[in-house]
Every structure is written in C-alpha cells, then in structure tokens.
UniProtKB/TrEMBL annotation, chain A:
This is 3-methyl-2-oxobutanoate dehydrogenase (2-methylpropanoyl-transferring). Residues 17-192 form the Transketolase-like pyrimidine-binding domain. InterPro entries: THDP-binding, Transketo_C/PFOR_II, Transketolase-like_Pyr-bd, Transketolase_C. Transmembrane segments: none annotated. One of its GO terms (biological process) is branched-chain amino acid catabolic process.
Automatic annotation (TrEMBL), chain B:
Pfam families: E1_dh. GO terms for molecular function: magnesium ion binding; oxidoreductase activity, acting on the aldehyde or oxo group of donors, disulfide as acceptor. GO terms for biological process: branched-chain amino acid catabolic process. CDD domains: TPP_E1_PDC_ADC_BCADC. Residues 67-333 form the Dehydrogenase E1 component domain. Residues 1-32, 364-383 are annotated as: Disordered. Keywords: Oxidoreductase, Pyruvate, Thiamine pyrophosphate. Its cofactor is thiamine diphosphate. The lineage of its organism: Bacteria, Bacillati, Actinomycetota, Actinomycetes, Kitasatosporales. This is Pyruvate dehydrogenase (Acetyl-transferring) E1 component subunit alpha. Residues 373-383 have a biased composition (Acidic residues). The keyword Oxidoreductase applies.
Length: 340, 383
C-alpha cells in the first residue's frame, strides 16, 4: 500500500482517505496532544509497521515515543503494563491477529484485571491494536478473527471500526480511555477509501454505541468490522427481492449496545448476525442470545447467524468459501420464513 | 578450541561478510562466580557494619515471626493459604531494604514478607491470601505492585515501569522477585531480554529455594546456575547466599545502585531453602527427605546473624530478647487484627471492572441488589 506522510494526511479539506491513513493520523494526533502516549511493538519504528500504520511516528516523535521492541508479544504487552503503571499511555501493536496469542496471559491475567484487583487504584490505559480477519490472501496465522477470545474476557473493552471516520474516532477514544482497549483493525478494510475530513474527524458517540448504517424495515443485519461492507452490499441486492434490510454496525463488541440492537430488531422483527469469525462459540451466539432475551415477543423468526466455517482459518486459495459473502447473507435472510 | 575461536578460522579463501551487528558485550564480567557470594561465616564478617547487622537481625527475626504467625492463621482458617518464606527471610528483607522510597517492588505471590518489610500494612498485604479483595493496598502508596500469582508475569511489568521512569527522567529502580520455577516461564525470558536491550533500571531477584512446589531445580533447568542465564541476555549474573542477610543486602544494593546510575539490569540468584512446605496445602514429605531439611537448619538466616553478632559482642541475650519481644508484639497485633471478620460489600463486585460501568454490568448490579434485598428480607422475616 502507498504510505502517506502525516503532513500530507493533515490537509484540512474533506478528501478521500484510507482507513490505514485515518488510523495513522489518530496515533499521530494523540501523540502530539498527549506526551504520555507511547507507541510500541514489532517494526513500528523505522518501518512504520508492516501495514505502515505507524509510519512517520518515530521520525516525528523519536524512538522513545515510538519504539521498536524485541520480538516478544508477552514482553511488549507486559512492558506496556508497567509503563501504564508509571503514568504512560502505551499503544501496543500486535503485528497480526494470531501473533497476539503469546500475549494472552498478560492480557487476561493482568491487563483485564488490574483495575479490579487493585480496587480501582491502578487503572491501565493501554490500547492494543490488532489487525484481524481475512480476505487479504494472508498465509496461515495471518487471518484469524480473534474477537471472541477478547469478548470472553471481562475487563477488556473491544472495539472494531468499519469506516474511515470510525477508525479515527474510535482509536482516539480508545487511547483516551482509562481502561485497556483491544482495538481490532479489520485488515481487509485498511485500504477502503472514504471521503473524510481529518480536521473534524472524531466519532461523536462514545465507545459502546452501535449505529444504524442503513435503515430498513424487513429485517436487521447485525454486523461489525470486516463484514459491514458485505452486509451493505447484501442489503442493496436484497432490494431486488423486495426486502428492505436494516444494517447495524456494532463498532463496539464490549460494551455491547443492547439498546440500539434491540430497538432495531423490535422494529423489523427479524435478525441475522453476520461475522467472519467462526460460528460455534463465536460472537454471534452471544449476540443472538441477547437479542432473543430482549426481543422474543417481537421476533417473527429465530435469530440466525451467518459466520465463518468452524474450521481453522483456511488456506487463502479457499478463504472465499469460508468467509460469509453476500449470497450466504441473502440465503439466511430468505430463511427468515418470509410471510409476505 | 572455543566456538569464538572457530568463527575466525578461515577454511576457504572467502570470508563471510561482516555482520551488520557488532557483538555488544564481553561475557567475562557478566559471568557469576562459581560459589555463592557469602559474608557471614567468612573473614569479611568481622568488618560488617554493626548497625547494619543489628538492623538486619531485627528484620529477619520479625520476618521469621511473621511467617510463623501467618502460617498459624491458615490453621485458624483466617487465611485461605499462606506460602511461607521461613528460611528465606534474609532474601525477602534484603529486597525491601535495598530499595529507596521512590523505587518499586514487584513481588511474586510468595513475597508478602518483602512487601511488609517495605512498610506495607501486614493486614492489607494479606488480603489476597485471606480470600478478601485481591489487592488490599494502593500499589502507588508504597510502590509495591500487586502480588503476582501467575508466575513470572510481573517481571515484564517491572521492566516497563523502570523504562517509563527513565523516560520521564526519574532515577527510579524496579526490583522484581521470582522463584526458581518461574525462571522457566517465557515471561522471565522476555522480561530479561527487554530489560537488557532497553538497559532498563531493573534488578531481577530469583530466590532459588530448591523446589517449585515438588519439582527440584535439576528438573527445572540444565543451566550451570540460574545466575548464568544473565549472560545470554547481556547482563551481569550474580550468585549469592540467600540465607546470608549481609551478602544479600550488599549484592542487592550494588545492583540497585548500578541500575540507578544507568548501568542497566542485573540478575541475582539467591541460593536459599524453603523450610516449610510450598503452602499449608502441600505435603513436602512426598518429594524431599527430613535429612535434607535438617541439613539446612545449621545455615538458618537467623542463626547466621546471631552467630556473628554474639561473636563480635554486638548483642547479648537481653538484646536478642528485646528483638524477639518486638517481633512478638508485631505478631500479636497481626493476630488480633486478622481475627476481625472482614466486611465486604457485594455491590463492589461491579465497581472496579471498568472506569464506567457498562450497561451489561448495570443490569447485573440491579439483579444482585434485588437478590440482596430479598435475602435481607428473608433473614429479617426469619428472626
Ligand atoms: C503461570 C503459572 N503456572 C503455574 C502456577 C501454579 N504454581 C504456583 S506456585 C508454583 C511453583 C513455583 O515455584 P517457584 O517459581 O520455584 O517459586 P516458589 O514457590 O518456590 O517460591 C506453581 C507451579 C502458577 N501460579 N502460575
């Protein structure tokens, strides 16, 4: 991908920008505003990260603010814990989803629990950026959707943007949060473009707020991150069948916006949860259960899930069979026992 | 021929291109001595500072009494569990005394005594072990991180904190404690490597007390000593008699000063012995002999200090009794305070999960409140 110098991205006019640029800009702005923000990870300095998200930060802020660490994910996150204990706001980059697993112990046993075990006296304002998900032809261990593991850990905030503007706004909010945030970056959307004004770029809604991306009346598609574009496409295609689909982008998996989701499903009476993570034990089960608990009497059909297959992430040549596409979403919508 | 010599041997006409990196460190000064460093029981003991000897003696005796009291509290059901450091008091106390007020201590789950010797309220230091809130103190107050139960995971925290302090221009040192078993964990490796690469002001103190629960050191590592591990990271390794309070104090103070002055991290292995079982839940007779335990009694940290103090005429029986009395007073106070039933508010379960409660937690808090009210009503009705 093309790399964009911060000053270039900084031009005020509303113009097309990629999600990658918006993320880089968010890091830069946060670092400029608050000297306690430190970026650390593998290759984040001179190289600017393998996805170039941190490009230019080491140059602008120095090696002490944007640090190439040894290759050790538990060490990176563990060091970030200590840094946060001493008043810094570390932003950690895990190079790829599956390479965040070595840091799981630190994440689960310390990052998620430190506020709680110290009765609020030692909050950890750490942001953990993790490029996640497939669709980019990555080889093994480069395409996992790991969100269910993070969602299953109380104490973590888990967010994932699907638009350029949200990428900026959510990352700024994550860094500003006094709690640890797992910030999942849908890597296949890194290069998605949008017109975006970097001068007034923040999402206004606080973390934990879902948004209706497309209003509709027939059924609700509930999704997030990489699957949002699939759902919007499906909603367009569904018009031909006479279905007017509403699309809800969760943006935040923890906290979960029950209100927005339930309000939508109560309006439409039908719901499909769409994500590329595996279905069994995946995020969709939790979401479907929450909807059923809150909307049972409004439901015209069971809540369905369209998810990735329950297999280890497949080789890239076969990944299209794993990833839920427009057709699978439409098939599910058709299975909502249509009555008109 | 050593490996280093081999490398420079030319076998073909062509030499390899020079590496992009340069060897950074001469290994020789990093290597630990073959024998643990000792002061007590050697000629050097005659020169040890009398004030320091008396202070260490008082602290070690208090530590011994503290261990006995905490162990007794497990028998009374006041503590859910207590990992005793009886036999290891010298190392625990030295760890606390080597630090300045502004420094940080990162204890493992066994190191309550080090935390208490650093000035922490003993009752607050024991909340974790009594089944009360996990950390009963504000870590910032005495600069003692929460006692870490997952082994070695607190070591990278110490590195990060020390690194952050240095970035801020503070001459703060972090001392991180771990057991011999903990050195096999990946976090141990990652922390030492980070610390050396960053030249972070950290001191790693390994208490080699012979066993990780039941597993002896020989099954834990094939290294010549745990202190030898330092060399591979590019930091000095020091082997010290962990029962020798003076040697411990000296080596730790030196390492802390070295770190404070920008010299980077040190790995210290304190060779000691765990006289009690792993915890009160453990049966040590399954994996070690009484003879082995007995052999260590003559090398007890309290005894070693008593010997030098009496030999040098620095203390008499009355003096020793005064120290024991003082320890007894501490134990009595601890006993009394631990006898009070802690009162916990269940609604607090939701207070410190996130800075701001999520809607999910608010809902659950309401549910619990209703349950508590129903419970209260039922118990009032029953009266
Ligand atoms: C990551 C992890 N694995 C296993 C345990 C269970 N466990 C608690 S203490 C212990 C032995 C530790 O031995 P050592 O590091 O030598 O410390 P010591 O108990 O001797 O002080 C084990 C295996 C743990 N606490 N953490």
């Amino acid at each position: 991908m093309a790399t964009v110098a911060p000053e270039q991205a900084a031009k005020p006019a509303t113009k097309p920008a990629t999600m990658a640029q918006a993320l880089g800009r968010a890091l830069r702005d946060a670092m400029a505003e608050d000297p306690s923000v430190h970026v650390l990870g593998e290759d984040v300095g001179t190289l600017g990260g393998v996805f170039r998200i941190t490009d230019g930060l080491a140059k602008e802020f120095g090696d002490d603010r944007c640090t190439d660490t040894p290759l050790a994910e538990a060490g990176i996150l563990g060091a970030a814990v200590g840094m946060a204990m001493y008043g810094l706001r570390p932003v950690v980059e895990m190079q790829f989803d599956a390479f965040g697993y070595p840091a799981f112990e630190q994440l689960v046993s310390h990052v998620a629990k430190m506020r709680n075990r110290t009765r609020g006296t030692m909050p950890l304002p750490i942001t953990i950026r993790i490029p996640y998900g497939g669709g980019i032809g990555g080889v093994e261990h480069h395409s996992d959707s790991s969100e269910a593991y993070y969602m299953a850990t109380p104490g973590l905030t888990v967010v994932t943007p699907a638009t350029v503007a949200d990428a900026y706004g959510l990352l700024r909010q994550s860094i500003a949060s006094d709690d640890p945030v797992v910030f999942l970056e849908p890597k296949r959307l890194y290069w998605s473009k949008d017109t975006w004004n970097p001068e007034s770029p923040a999402t206004v809604e606080p973390i934990g707020t879902a948004v209706v991306r497309r209003p509709g009346t027939s059924a609700t598609l509930i999704t997030y991150g990489p699957s949002l574009t699939v759902c919007l496409e499906a909603a367009e295609a569904a018009r031909a069948e006479g279905w007017d689909l509403e699309v809800v982008d969760l943006r935040s998996l923890v906290p979960f916006d029950d209100a927005t989701v339930a309000a939508s499903v109560r309006r439409t009476g039908r719901a499909v949860v769409v994500h590329e993570s595996h279905g069994f034990g995946g995020p969709g089960g939790e979401i479907a259960a929450r909807i059923t608990e809150r909307c049972f009497h409004h439901l015209e059909a069971p809540v369905l899930r369209v998810a990735g297959l329950d297999i280890p992430y497949p080789p890239p040549m076969l990944e299209r069979h794993h990833l839920p596409g427009v057709d699978r979403v439409l098939d599910a919508v058709a299975r909502l026992q249509w009555d008109q | 021929m050593t490996v280093m010599e081999q490398r420079s041997t030319r076998r073909t006409g062509r030499t390899a291109p020079p590496p992009a990196w340069q060897p950074r460190t001469d290994p020789a000064p990093l290597l630990p001595d073959a024998e643990p460093y000792r002061v007590l029981g050697t000629d050097a003991a005659a020169k040890a500072d009398p004030e320091l000897l008396r202070r260490l003696y008082a602290e070690v005796v208090r530590g011994r009494r503290y261990n006995a009291q905490a162990t007794a509290l497990t028998k009374q059901g006041r503590l859910a569990v207590y990992p005793s450091t009886t036999g290891q008091e010298a190392a625990e106390v030295a760890a606390a005394l080597a630090l300045e007020e502004r420094d940080w201590l990162f204890p493992s789950y066994r190191d309550t005594l080090a935390a208490v010797a650093r000035g922490l309220d003993p009752v607050q230091a024991l909340t974790l072990l009594r089944g009360d809130w996990h950390t009963g103190y504000d870590p910032h107050e005495h600069r003692v991180a929460p006692l870490s139960t997952p082994l070695a995971t607190q070591l990278p925290h110490a590195v990060g904190l020390a690194h952050a302090a240095r970035l801020k221009g503070d001459d703060v040192v972090a001392l991180a404690m771990v057991g011999d078993g903990g050195t096999s964990e990946g976090d141990f490796h990652e922390a030492l490597n980070f610390a050396a690469v960053w030249q972070a002001p950290v001191v790693f103190l390994v208490q080699n007390n012979g066993y990780a629960i039941s597993v002896p050191l020989a099954k834990q590592t094939a290294a010549p000593s745990l202190a030898h591990k330092a060399v591979g990271y590019g930091m000095p390794g020091r082997l010290v008699d962990g029962n020798d309070a003076v040697a411990m104090h000296e080596v730790l103070t030196e390492a802390v000063t070295h770190a404070r002055e920008g010299g980077g991290p040190t790995l210290i292995e304190a060779v000691t012995y765990r006289m009690d079982a792993h915890t009160n839940a453990d049966d040590a007779t399954r994996y070690r002999t009484d003879d082995e335990v007995e052999a260590w009694r003559d090398h007890d940290p309290v005894l070693l200090l008593e010997r030098v103090l009496t030999e040098r005429g620095l203390i008499d029986e009355a003096g020793m009794q005064a120290v024991r009395d003082d320890a007894e007073t501490m134990a009595a106070a601890l006993r009394e305070r631990m006898n009070a039933d802690p009162v916990l508010d269940p609604m607090d379960l939701f207070t410190h999960v996130y800075a701001e409660q999520t809607s999910q937690l608010r809902e659950q808090a309401e549910q619990l409140r209703a349950e508590l009210e129903a419970e209260a009503e039922a118990s009032e009705g029953g009266r």
